[in-house]
Design a protein that fits this description.
Layout lengths: L9 E3 L4 E3 L15 E5 L2 E5 L1 H9 L6 H12 L3 H17 L3 E3 L2 H13 L1
Antiparallel strand pairs: 1-5, 2-3, 3-4
């Protein structure tokens, strides 16, 4: 398992696409409300809970911030969702779907946010 820290900011790799899995329901029994993530080397279906985490991964928030924001949205205690979010993020990094943002990545994303 890939190691990620709670202070890590994650970004999606450029070769990753994501879409609602309506057309590919046979890929997972838990596809309802989930998301199909594709790379040139594989397809992965994440469930509805993981999709909520995916939506918050924007290259600006740390994993701990994602946990806080998800807790605030869902009303669930942070200590209840922290480990599952951390495990999911680590697994997505391990699969090459996400990567830990470098300082250069962070600078570009901040500049884009100001310009946009």
């Amino acid at each position: 398992m890939s190691t990620v820290n709670t202070d890590d900011v994650l970004i999606r790799r450029l070769d990753v696409t994501a879409r609602v899995p309506d057309q590919v329901v046979e890929l997972s029994e838990r596809h309802e409300g989930g998301l199909l993530i594709e790379r040139l080397i594989g397809r992965y279906v994440i469930d509805a809970d993981a999709r909520k985490v995916w939506r918050l991964i924007d290259g600006r928030r740390s994993i701990s911030r994602i946990v806080e924001d998800l807790g605030a949205e869902s009303g669930l205690p942070v200590d209840e969702i922290e480990q599952p979010v951390h495990t999911l993020c680590g697994r997505l990094v391990e699969l090459g779907i996400l990567q830990v943002a470098t300082p250069a990545d962070t600078a570009v994303l901040k500049q884009a946010a100001v310009a946009g």
